[in-house]
Amino acid sequence: MPDQIEKTAVGTLDPEPVAAAAPATDREKPRSLWNDAWRELRRNPVFIASALMILFLVTVALWPSLFTSTSPTDCQLAKSRQGAASGHPFGFDLQGCDVYARTIYGARASVTVGVLVTLGVALLGGVLGGLAGYFGGWWDALLSRITDVFFGIPILLGGLVILSVIKGGSIWTVIGFMIALGWPQIARIARGSVITVKQQDYVQAARALGGSTGRILLRHILPNAVAPVIVVATIALGMYISVEATLSYLGVGLKPPTVSWGQDISAAAVQYRNAPHMLLWPAGALSLTVLSFIMLGDAVRDALDPKLR
């Protein structure tokens, strides 16, 4: 009788809990912020469309000879303001230059300025703002007062004054000027983000365990504080391209022989009624480029901010 009770008790044991306990290695690992962001971006048609357009623009900027064999400086006054012709789908400008070739080669200056200024601003502003937010004290107070001074200088007004005095007109002069006036915005964003992150429990735990300042900044604060900087920098990239075009339009930005959409728009504005094609194509290319980067920035912002999902 006891044997039968023992067998019955053993036989009534539920095997399901044992089978349900899956090994720890088979459990799904929690996704990070960046994995979630990339997952959202791949599903966003706005991101896909803007990324494809930007990829095309970067290809045009790096290898313009793939899209045209005509030199943008090869001009014939006899063809001044003529419309589309065989091999010249966009017509000719006031100097008899091929508008299509100048539109293609103009992408190089705009994309180069936009990308390099964004990288420079993000690096300089991110480092200065991050250090100010982490250490605080007199360093934070000094940086705050400096950024207040720079915020009082509009970038277009500063460009008109500074570039008209320098009179260089090279692409590196324009890039350096825009970085000098553009970093305070990123610095303020980075400062606020670092102040928020350094108060988190995992940062306090790393500090209590004796982690060095460099390790805490690189391993704990940087990965969690860089998202707002990336969002602002991506959106600002389109603005930097439009600022360069505006300064070139006003005659203080890029100078020949550098080909710029701003230069072509400025030259075509006075001939718009007689030859609208001179203005249509460079202005359309500029608008499409700026729109692509702004759309990319909006998509990245939505993916990195969980509150907007």
From TrEMBL:
The keyword GTP-binding does not apply. Residues 107-297 form the ABC transmembrane type-1 domain. It is a multi-pass membrane protein. It is found in: Cell membrane. Keywords: Cell membrane, Membrane, Transmembrane, Transmembrane helix, Transport. The chain crosses the membrane at residues 46-67, 111-135, 155-181, 221-241, 279-300. CDD domains: TM_PBP2 (cd06261). Gene3D superfamilies: MetI-like. Belongs to the binding-protein-dependent transport system permease family. This is ABC transporter permease.
